[in-house]
Amino acid sequence: MRTNTGLVVLFLALLTGCGEASITQVTPPVPPGAMKVLVEFTGNDRASWWIVNDDVMGGRSSSNISLTGDRTALFTGFVSLENNGGFASVRAGFPSLDLSAYNGIKLRIRGDGRQYQLRFNHAGSYSAVAHGVEFDTTPGEWTEIDLPFETFQPSYRGYIPRGIGPLDVARIRQMTVLIGDKKEGQFALEIDWVKAY
């Protein structure tokens, strides 16, 4: 029985990864419609969140985040416009989050009719450039909101910085929920979950 030595060598090289021929492992794409859970408040999630308000620059806004009996998070507080303030936020850090296989973020929230922002940054610092997008809420109603990554715009301390590229979804280090709608008063936003779609 005759054999083709060249074909046998190539086949063995492919199996063992030796020689010039090698097998490349391909990561399967995310199935259509699949979502990745980024945040859901099913356990002791409060420890990974912290508050940053305008008091870091002399303002007088205040806020708090707490877990409810329904395993949601309640972000509440008061936005003050005194001393050039006007924002309150709650933030969560990630060692490194790669969302390059997804198109955007989906939130399930119940709001108070005010406008909020969802932000991400790459540095994991509250003073770094962030990429964010605003979203509206309907008083007392649970809603699911889609926020495509392409709509996230860079900002730094209320200004749009020059020379900053789009959000790099492959290296996210921090997520922020912020209220800064230039309106003084109480606010309340309940968050069920945050997912990538």
Describe this structure in words.
- This protein has 197 residues and is mostly beta strands.
- The protein is built from one helix and twelve strands, in the order H-E-E-E-E-E-E-E-E-E-E-E-E.
- Strands 1, 3, 4, 6, 9 and 12 form a six-stranded antiparallel beta sheet that branches. Strands 2-5-11-7-8-10 form a six-stranded antiparallel beta sheet, with no helix packed on it.
- Residues 1-27 have low confidence and may be disordered.
Labels describing this entry:
12 strands; 197 residues; mainly beta; six-stranded antiparallel sheet; globular
Globally, the shape reads: globular
Give the total of beta strands: 12
Radius of gyration equals 23 Å
Q: Helices and strands, in N-to-C order? A: HEEEEEEEEEEEE
Share of residues in strands: 35-45%
Identify low-pLDDT runs. 1-27
Gap between N and C termini, in Å? Answer: 56 Å
Pairing-aware structural class of the strands and helices?
mainly beta
Q: State the helix count.
A: 1
What is the share of helical residues? Answer: under 10%
Largest sheet: 6 strands, antiparallel
How confident is the prediction overall: mean pLDDT? Answer: 84
